[in-house]
Amino acid sequence: MIKKLLLVTFPIDLGSTTFEQLFIKMFDSCPNIDLKVYRFAANQNHIHPKSIFTLDYARKFWKRIIDSRKLQKAVHQANSEGRKVLFNGISPAVFAYPAIHHENSYIVTDWTRKLFAPIWGHSGSPTWLTFIHKRVLNSQKYVFGVTDAVIEQIKKDYDVPENKLKKVKLPFASDLNMFVPSPKQEEDEIRILFVGGDFHRKGGDILLNWFVENYKPGLQMTMLTRKSKVIHPKISFVNNVSYGQARHIEIFKNHDIFVLPTKCDAYPSVLGEAACAGLAILTTKNALGAPEIVRNNINGYICSSQEDLLNKLNELINNKSLIKEMKSNSRKLMEKEFEDELVLNEYMTYIFE
After folding, report:
1. CA nearest to 40, candidates 71, 16, 77
2. Residues 227, 50: Cα–Cα separation, whole Å
3. Residue 271 near residue 294 (C-beta atoms within 8 A)
4. In this structure, what CATH number is given to the domain that contains residue 159?
5. Helix 320-337 / helix 269-276 crossing angle, nearest 10 deg
6. Are the CB atoms for 224 and 258 separated by under 8 Å?
7. Are residues 124 and 180 in the same domain?
């Protein structure tokens, strides 16, 4: 029997665009799903004007109202067709709220505005916005969280009952097919990879300084980021590479250790890409989705701080046999935990029960 689904996405940045592609590929792979995709406010500049008292802000506000009406019309149409509606993120569900039917509507998310409060030391959500998000989250049949951190935070800060909250996995099956380990092993060189457009928040500056200060023959590093920072014979800076391009895939394949010393992240999908490609992974506890991908001492380390991460990195680059073991374990873990049918069945069970 054919199952009808409307997937509503909000491709506001690289992370949400990557998640969008992962979900589309997962549902498209199932012949029993009649999938429609609605890309809310796609191909727009999502940089907010500095002041609300500007013509730019007025234009953006009016455009968002028009986009919201179009989205609500699409959701109404989906309801009339008997489609289930899955919102990728809370924001598109907010804009569609007047059209939502409780029994047909679901949200999947890795993030809320209050998620980073323990890291920042303050809430990122004003009271009025928290109230709106609480109403929208509680209007869903189920809210899917892809990390334990977001599940616990939604339960605590938005009063969503446990029976509405479901833990699911990100659908990395397409990445398992795309990012495969290289059959070639460079025994004489250890290759480190960093990926992050927001260079300082992702900890790129910390890693760059470490490499320059601790460089020794046999180390090489690639930094996939927006612009180069220093000139070093063993550091390559790469930009203008999009997800899924041949160059993107090749970069992951040709490295040994993926390092993300991030100060603040919900669920960096690059961790999954790195694990699929068979890389050892070092990141911090501030990558809240890291426990979904990284097992301490098995395929990498989730470190308590950036300083702790650099200490672990110093140890790891002097232990090639452990690097080789962790690389193998990363790929095995992804194949076991994120197998296509296993992940898809979770969503199918909850949405079409």
Report:
1. 71
2. 25
3. yes
4. 3.40.50.2000
5. 110
6. no
7. no
* Sign of the torsion angle spanned by Cα atoms 128, 134, 140, 144: positive
| Amino acid letter, 19 | F
CB distance 140 to 164 below 8 Å: yes
Contact 61/30 with Cβ under 8 angstroms?
no
Taking 70 as the threshold, does the pLDDT of residue 186 lie above it? no
pLDDT given for residue 50 in this prediction: 61
Model pLDDT, residue 187: 74
Sign of CA pseudo-dihedral 118, 301, 200, 41: negative
Structure tokens at 167: 């833990």
Torsion sign, CA atoms 146, 72, 25, 243: negative
- Structure-model confidence comparison of residues 37 and 53, the more confident one: 37
Q: State yes or no: pLDDT of 51 exceeds 90.
A: no
Judge if 183 and 139 occupy the same domain.
no
Neighbours of 24 (CB within 10 A): 18
pLDDT of 256 strictly over 60: yes
Pairing assessment for the beta strands 165-167 and 142-145 based on DSSP bridges: parallel
Domain around 203: 176-337
Number of domains in the chain: 2
pTM metric for this prediction: 0.94
Higher pLDDT residue, 296 or 228?
296
H or E element that contains 284: strand 280-284
